[in-house]
Amino acid sequence: MRKHWRIATLGVLGAAAMMVAGLGEAMAQNEQFMPRLTYRTGPYAPNGVPFANGYADYLNLINERDGGINGVKVAFEECETGYDTARGVECYDRLKGKGAAGAAVVDPLSTGITFALTEKAPGDKIPLITMGYGRSESQDGSVFGWNFPLLGTYWAAADIIMNYVAQKEGGYGKLKGKKISLVYHDSPYGKEPIPLLEELAKRHGFAFTAMPVTHPGVEQKATWLQIRQNRPDYVLLWGWGVMNSTSIKEAAAVNYPRNKMIGVWWSGAEPDVTPAGDGSKGYLAANLQAVGDQFSVHRDIYKSVYDKGKGAAKKEEVGQVLYNRGLVNAFLATEAIRTAQAKFGNKPLNGEQVRWGIEHLDITAARIKEAGFEGLVYPIKLSCQDHMGSARARIQQWDGTKWSFVSDWIEADRKLLDPMVAAAAKKYAEEKKITPRDCSKEM
Amino acid sequence: MLYREAGQFKTTYGDDQAVFPIRQDRWGMAIILAIAYVALPWLATDYFITSIMIPFLIYALAAIGLNLLTGYCGQVSLGTGGFMAVGAYAAYNLAIRVPELNLIVIFILAGGAAAMVGVVFGVPSLRIKGFYLAVATLAAQFFLDWAFARIKWFTNYTPSGSVAAPPLDIFGFAINTPDRRYFLILAIVTVMALAAKNLVRGRVGRSWMAIRDMDIAAEIIGIRPLRAKLSAFAVSSFFAGVAGALWAFLHLGAWEPLAFDINRSFLLLFMVIIGGLGSILGCFLGAAFILMVPLALNQIPTALGMPLSTAMISHLEFMIFGAMIVFFLIAEPHGLARLWALAKEKLRLWPFPH
After folding, report:
1. pLDDT tens-digit series, residues B40-95
2. Which residues of chain A make contact with B259, given a CB cutoff of 8 A?
3. In chain B, whose CA is at the least distance from the CA of A45?
4. A120, B253: Cβ pair inside 8 Å?
5. What is the interface pTM, i.e. ipTM, of the complex?
6. What per-residue confidence (pLDDT) applies to B255?
7. Tell me: the pLDDT tens digits for A302-346?
8. Which of B54, B152, B284, B337 to pair with B62, CA 20 to 30 A apart?
9. Which pLDDT tens digit goes with each residue over A77-128?
């Protein structure tokens, strides 16, 4: 009798294994596949979830409202990275070959994973869209052929924030002798802005100190004690996940004025400020896009996605900062595919074709209006050499219940960034023995 | 019956001292090697090679390193991640500062650098034992993490502190496809696992085990604790260092100190404990268990078409994996290697158990 039971178990296991093997093949042939590296668990989940939801909702909107991108349906699959680099690389390898033409574009939402994938993407010919994050020098498309830090890098972010500080103080000349501190996540993400801030400190004569916070960032007492002693004029915050809300709480505890704290665009979402309650009032942060669900794309999403019960988020979360960033990110990725389709035809495209699309991306104000993103995002145009496009952001302030803008669009100073980018990219190219592409010959 | 060695006569001392004294084991090993060297590269997908086999082999190598120290010499270590980091950053600095070095030489020197650091952090083991030593090695982990995050020279002054491996080649043969990387790692792991197996069967390994079982008795019969313990730290860190260099160069490609943080050390310790302390086979079993089970659990719901959310799948993965660790430890506290040994005993008597 026992033996029969064993044979039955083996049979069930075997059948399960066969199903696993068989289902992998059952992918539709006429769909554009987008791998989605997400993190919905772990210390960074509060920020990873809304972004992933926004992304998913936009792709669903494209499918439900338009029947795909020019009729090519978008298929996507999420893979949980937990913000862990090794796991992110595994997810990338798992998903890169799926779909009719392979992965169109990868968007890891983690600087660490971006660094690792930067080494793999050229071999696999899959473009990486790292909107507002990633390697700052990857703006140089001649060396980093497959990286696209659209809308701004960390160097651009640092420059935009310092520009705002200068505006507030009455010009860069007034910064002399001021004290600026950077509280940063001790990872490549947090360290990225340091070279640019050091350069600015040298030029404008302010004192710059960088204060690391160890991953995941719940222990910051010592850092804020130092800030209480030094009393810097401004504190820039380069945090992510639980680190942001902890910083704001600690700032409230040492009574550092929150309206002198400016977060990068990854440190200025609802999950960052709500845990600190009233302590967050007055906190400032940069934002790459707008906040709120009053845009026409949101109306379409409510109608075509949520009313059909296919929404990824809770309805009240639609329009949050990171949700909207997910939307914009998905918008740029699908527009790139659309651009590429104009050249290669309306069919599932491979990574190389999509890269052509990103390099020739030209989203005008008219197109933004047509897509329902008017006021949500700034027009952007890319080229073979310039993989960033426009680098503009606005500063927003938390009033205890909502974000509102306190500045107009501020543009990063390309005259400052470009030479630094070129120098850093050249160093990378030498280390990796890459011969830069000649962008004047590309078309 | 399957494992009965009746009729296999050992006529020389060489036969008696062979690594695999039983014919079935030799055949089994030959089949495993044939699968690893021939069948897998030929049949397996790129995903299987890059995301399962490569990390599995590197983890197994690092676990062997830790097992030599903890399982054979009895010195608990929580610093394996740190020693891997030493190997990775030593390899990086050698590769970019002395570009003419051969990749194999770089890996050996990287292991050597880790061995030296390991000896330094092994010195406290001469005075302290058990949990206290674990804390001392924890200090190694944190110090090394700190050093690679803060001392800019190690990362060649890259602005973000993340470094990338240069293009790799051996005698002009570029290591750039998953299969080539796999072969290189497999060859290194084969050689080093064999070396470890022989090391623990020989004089050095026996002196480690004597220290592990009772250090005072070992000292009385003439084993010098200083030499035994420090050699264990050196060899263990050498293995960890090579594993770290492989992890950085051939698996990740670009890395930051976080890739070798305390979690990596814990993971390796779990591999050794679940695989079996004091067993080379256990290192492979433990690495396979810790690496592959979560990946399988993560993929099964999607593959079966179950409509679960990404977060739910991830939570299930943690819960089931945790339950499995507890189950295996209760079922066999001495690890998977011991389960295999028991299975062998049973197979020997099968089908006539008594």
Report:
1. 999 999 899 999 999 999 999 999 999 999 999 999 999 999 999 999 999 999 99
2. 85-86, 112
3. B311
4. yes
5. 0.88
6. 92
7. 999 999 988 889 888 999 999 999 999 999 999 999 999 999 999
8. B152
9. 999 998 888 899 999 999 998 888 889 999 989 988 999 999 999 989 999 9
How confident is the model over A408-437, as pLDDT tens digits? 999 999 999 999 999 999 988 988 888 998
B93 touches A: beta carbon within 8 Å: no
pLDDT of residue A28: 57
Q: Is B156 within the bounds of a domain?
A: yes
Nearest residue to B59 (alpha-carbon basis) of B277, B252, B247: B247
Domain that holds residue B148: 45-261
Q: What pLDDT was estimated at residue B159?
A: 80
In A46-129 the beta strands, taken as DSSP E runs, fall at 73-80, 128-129
Q: Is the separation of the CB atoms in A105 and A358 below 8 Å?
A: yes
Partner-chain residue, chosen from B45, B156, B159, that has the shortest CB–CB distance to A195: B159
The CA angle A266-A268-A273, to the nearest 5 degrees, is 130
Q: Nearest CA of chain B to the CA of A135: how many Å?
A: 8
Please answer yes or no on whether B50 and A45 come within 8 Å at the CB atom.
Answer: no
> Is B251 within 8 Å of A86 when comparing Cβ atoms?
yes
Whether A86 and B303 lie within 8 Å, measured CB to CB? no
What whole-number distance in Å separates Cα of residue A35 and Cα of residue A79? 8
Whether residue B311 and residue A41 make contact (CB cut-off 8 A), yes or no, is yes
- Read out DSSP for B62-107? HHHHHHIIIIIS----S-HHHHHHHHHHHHHHHHHHSTTS-HHHHH
A23, A94, A113, A219: best to mutate for the B interface, most B CBs within 10 A: A94
- Would you give the distance in Å from CA B38 to the centre of its chain? 23
* Interface contact B148, partner A, CB < 8 A: no
Using an 8 Å CB-CB cutoff, list chain A residues near B313.
Answer: 80
Q: Do B259 and A97 touch (CB under 8 A)?
A: no
- Walk me through the domains of chain A, giving residue ranges and CATH numbers: 31-153+291-391+419-432 (3.40.50.2300), 155-289+396-416 (3.40.50.2300)
CA of residue A231 relative to chain centroid, distance: 31
**Which of B160, B304, B305 is opposite residue A188, by nearest beta carbon?**
B160
B147 in reach of chain A (CB within 8 A): no
CB contact under 8 Å between A115 and B256, yes or no, is yes
pLDDT in tens, A200-238: 999 999 999 999 998 888 899 999 999 999 999 999 999
Mutation target for B interface from A39, A90, A427: give the one with most B CBs within 10 A: A90
Strand partners, A406: none
Kindly indicate the confidence band of residue B173, based on its pLDDT and cuts at 50, 70 and 90: confident
Structure tokens at B241: 């260092």
Q: What is the mean pLDDT of chain A?
A: 89
Nearest CA in chain A to B257: A187
Residue B15 in domain: no
Q: Which residue of B97, B310, B313, B316 to mutate against A (max A Cβ within 10 Å)?
A: B310
Residue B2 lies in a domain: no
Nearest to B159 among A85, A186, A424 (CB): A424
Question: In 3-state terms, chain B is what percent helix, strand and coil (to 5)?
Answer: 75, 0, 25
The pLDDT-based confidence of A4 (bands split at 50, 70, 90) is low
The beta strand positions in A81-160, using DSSP E, are 128-129, 147-148
Within-domain flag for B113: yes
Q: In whole numbers, what is the pLDDT of chain B averaged over residues? A: 92
Nearest chain A alpha carbon to B264: A86
Contact in structure between B40 and B53 (CB atoms under 8 Å): yes
Q: Which helix (H) or strand (E) holds A84?
A: none
**Residue type for position A50:** P
H or E segment to which residue B163 belongs: strand B163-164
Structural domain tally of chain B? Answer: 1
